Amino acid sequence: MRRIMRRTILLFTLMAAALLVGSGVALAQPAPGEVPDASCQPTSGEIPNGLAFLRNSWVMAYTFTAEQTGLLTSAQVQIQNAADEPTSTSLVMEIRAVDSLGIPTGEVLASTTIPETGIPPHGQSGVVTGHFSPGAPVEAGQQYAIALHTTTEPVGDGLGWVGTFFLASCPGTLYFNPPPTPGEFIVVAENFDVLFSTFVTLRTAPQTKADCKRGGYKEFGFKNEGQCIKAVNQAG
Q1: First to last CA, the chain
Q2: Residue ranges in the chain modelled with pLDDT below 70
C-alpha cells in the first residue's frame, strides 16, 4: 500500500511539471466591500511553469495564512483547461480548516460550486472566481487551506491548477486527499506553489441579539450564537 501511495505522489508531482503555461496571469480584483487578503502570485519576471491536475475524487488543497480578520467571501485561482477534448464539468472550491501541524482537514468552512460557464474553455487558461456566502470566518495570522476538485471525472488531463516551482514568496504547501480516506491529506510537492488570491469582508459588529439568531452570528465571524450575543451585551 505504501509503495502504491508513493507512486501516486510521484505521479502528481510529475504531472504538475508536465505542461508549461504562459505568463499572462490576470490580476485579481475584489468585489465591493472586500479587501485583498492572502495570495500567491508570480512576481516580476517569474513565469508559471506547471499544473497540478484536478480529479473529482481527489481533493487538492493549498495552505495559506490569513492577513485580515473577517469573513473570507471570495477566492480566485488560475486554471488551465487541458482536457483532451471539450467536456462538461463544474469546479468545487472550498475553504478548509487545518490541524495543529498545518495540514488540511476534512472540516469545510465554506464551499461553492463554479459552473462550467465560469471555467476556461478547452485549451485555454484563465482566472476562476468563487463566491462564498456567508463566507468562512478567518483570523489574521491563522492558517487555512483553499481546496479544489471537479464534479465529474475529467477527459484526459482535465483541469489543472496553475502554479510554479520554487516560488519563494509563497510559503504554503500543496496537498491532495486520495480516496477512500476523506480528510487525510498528503503532500504533493513541497516546492510547488499554486496561484490563488483570497478576499475578505471585514467584520461589522452585531447591533442587537436578533442579529445573532437564525445563523446570523456567522455573518460576523462568531463560532456560535452565544459568542455573538455576548459581544452585543458587552457593547451595550
Answers
A1: 59
A2: 1-32, 86, 166-169
